[in-house]
Structure formats: C-alpha cells, structure tokens
Predict the structure.
Amino acid sequence: MPKLTLAAKLENLNSMIKFILDEAATLGFDEKNKFQVRLAAEEVLVNIINYAYPKETGDIQITVNSKEKDSLEIEIADWGFAFDPLSREDPKVCVPLEERKIGGLGIFLTRKVMDDVRYRRDNDRNIMTLIKKLP
Amino acid sequence: MESKYAVNIQGDVAKIELSGRLDAVNAPAFQEELKKLSGPVLKQVVFFAKDLEYISSAGLRAIIFAKQKVGSASQVYLVGANEAVLGVIKMSGLDNFMHIQDTYSE
C-alpha cells in the first residue's frame, strides 16, 4: 500500500495532495472526482497542519488503498492531541454571510464530497479515513 | 496555471480577477490583496472566476471576509465560474449572497 510520511507543514501540502491524486488517477478518477478528492484531502490535511501540533511540529502519514478497484480509501494519521473533527456541529450555511461564523466549513465540505468519512483514535494517533467510490 | 489574484478598483466598483487555485497555500496572498477593498465605498464587488480551477474552504473564507469587509450595501458578483468551483460555492451556501453570472456587463 503506498504510504507517505511528511512533516505537518503547509509547505508540504502540495506534495501530500499530489501523492493522493496520483493514486486517484490510477483508478481512473475523472476531473470532477479528482477535484473532490483534492478538496477533501486539503481540508483534512490543513486541519492537522493548523491544529494538531500546537507546540512542536509532528508528522502526517498518508496511506492510500485502492485494492477495492472501485473505491479509493485514504487514511490520514497524525500523532497530535486527540481531536475528532467530525464531532463538530455543521456550520449554518443559511445564516447571512455577515453573521457567519468562520470554521467547520472544511469538514462540512469533506463530508459532502466523500462517500464516507470516519475518525478513530488509535493509541496515540488520530486517524481520518476518507472513502470515495468510483461513480 | 499560475495562481494570481488582482483587485482593480474603478470608482465604486471593485473587479477581482481570480486564476489557478484558491487554496490554503494561496489564500494568505489573496487575503492580503483583498485589503484594498477596505478604503472606498463600493457598490459592486465582482469576482471574475473564468480561470479559477479550484477553491477550498480557505478560499471561501477569504470571499466571506471580503463580503464582511464591504458590508451589506455592496452587491457581490461571481462571474464565469466553472461547474466544480460553483459546486463548492453552492454547497457552502455562498450562492445565497452572491449574484452568480456567466458574463458581466458594466
């Protein structure tokens, strides 16, 4: 299973996304699906980069599993403090922009464009699993 | 495509050209450029998005920030966005607060 580990830094975001999209391309994902995979991956990765390691920088490990052939399973792990992003309330997208609270939008979008999004805590790791099926 | 953002203010209309990707890497530069909106009283803020390939929540937040900055008296337009970008805009409910158009005429 292809695996990539890099420091949780914004400067590594494009390399991490490219790693995931290359795998999506081998499954034959079209442009629309690749856009959606990029979006979900960015939102989850940026959350980790911004919040998982408040004191010192840690790593992000990405594992991509496409053995099902008709779906892409992306596992994104970090060793930061325990946090389940799925526990947050969805943003109120109907509220006027002027009163909109910033935050929660990324995970909201991730859930919209993926077929399944899961979180688990495994010992000292946060693990997010994103699943996108071929249409 | 290179990611570029340029704010051009003519009278009470601000025109903003977007190209490439509006993501977490590029949003800070975009946010910086949007500071130009805080001076004049603007009747219209027009985002030209024909060459915008991708937008994430970081880009959306910058647009929300722009809207909050100019206040409710200005009309915000999104012109020429592709289907995928428009999908993200609609999922987030931003289409309720912007005029979505294929083309723009003065």
About this structure: The longest strand of chain A covers residues 125-133. The two ends of chain A are 23 Å apart (CA to CA). The domain at 3-133 of chain A is CATH 3.30.565.10 (Heat Shock Protein 90).
